[in-house]
Amino acid sequence: MDARITSPFGAFSTAREVAAGHDLRGNVAIVTGGATGIGIETARALAEAGADVVIAARKPDLAQAAIADIGRPAQGPGARFQMLDLSSLASVRDFAARWGAQPLHLLIHNAGVMACPLQRTTDGLEMQIGTNHFGHFLLGLLLAQALQAGAQGRGRPSRLVSLSSIGHRRSGIHWDDPNYLQRPYDKWEAYGQAKTANALFAVGYDRHYGAQGIRANAVMPGGIMTPLQRHLTHDEMVAMGWIDAATGKLRDGFKTPAQGASTSVWASLGTELEGVGGLYLEDCQQALPWTKASPWQGVLPHALDPDAAERLWALSLQTVGA
User: Fold this and answer.
1) Is residue 240 assigned to a domain?
2) 3-class secondary structure, 23
3) 82 part of a folded domain
4) Cα–Cα distance between 100 and 94 in angstroms, integer?
5) With contact defined as beta carbons under 8 Å apart, do 167 and 228 qualify?
6) Within a domain: residue 147?
7) Domain span holding position 167
8) Which alpha helices (DSSP H) does 221-291 contain, by range?
């Protein structure tokens, strides 16, 4: 790789520590899925730094509870809610229509579904790739004008952050049947495909919009116990080595939600990333290549392949009808 981009922060830095010293007054950020887990910690850190934070989520009660939890920061307007259901392309279009061309500076694709039983979105897409990728793809496409306006207004690029996962190692894109219409469904393969798509989306988005004032990077937040695991049983997590069967404790290396949000915040604010895009980031650094010796870290080539990113871009345009 070229000279690796690093930061003063590490795996267990918190989102607040990364945001410290940044003055985001006058900046607008959208955090999808910002009502729980690492989403609320991302929203909290940005709001406390002065940003006007929009929690885009599908459950108003959870969003309002998150807004109350974040509170009114000393500077900036804090957080507010807008309805968005990423499993419905109509909902995505409605969100974008309400937003219009209002300047936007940070778009953080945080929401996600993991290892659910076979389900389909309202548009007939497999739920994981439908929500994690295709819904976010359409959102990023429709808000590009707003992100461009944000970049022009402040004189430096806006940023899009796409949350991927080490789960991308489980699968590339199954081009002939990404929605499991013909082949047997495997929840972990489907998750891996969706997380590869999230990384490739950042590569493609940066290629298409980087010259227009929007830079995009993918983020691996790390292992964090959040509502993302709601489809997994305790026994499954023990079998995967996430939880020690004897003690019931999480394995070493798991992060708190505040620590898990740190790389998202660094991708949003880090001066080291000014003018840089198309990368896969983890632990507040540019990720190293994946190796068998360190299976829970790193990035595989298929998640950063520019040709695959363009192929996915074309497939996504066709799928969402854009």
Assistant:
1) no
2) coil
3) yes
4) 10
5) no
6) yes
7) 15-224+256-320
8) 234-239, 257-260, 262-269
Share of the chain above pLDDT 90, in %: 85
User: Is-contact 75 19, C-beta < 8 A?
Assistant: no
Count of structural domains, the chain? 1
CA distance 30 to 109: 8
- Rounded to two decimals, the pTM is 0.94
User: What whole-number distance in Å separates Cα of residue 227 and Cα of residue 11?
Assistant: 21
CATH of the domain at 174: 3.40.50.720
Our answer to whether residue 191 is catalytic in this structure is yes
pLDDT per residue over 8-45, tens digit each?
999 999 999 999 999 999 999 999 999 999 999 999 99
- Residue 141 CB contacts under 8 Å (≥ 6 apart), including other chains: 320, 322
Which residue, 111, 113, 147, 110, is CA-closest to 129?
113
Choose the weakest-confidence range: 82-91, 244-253, 289-298. 244-253
- Residue ranges of the alpha helices (H) in 71-186? 89-99, 127-129, 136-142, 144-154
For residue 97, the Cα-to-chain-centroid distance in whole angstroms is 22
Beta-ladder partners of 243: 250
Question: Helical H runs in the chain?
Answer: 15-19, 37-48, 60-70, 89-99, 127-129, 136-142, 144-154, 187-209, 234-239, 257-260, 262-269, 306-320
Q: What are phi and psi of 296, to 5 degrees?
A: -95, 5
Annotated active-site residue in 180, 191, 209, 280: 191
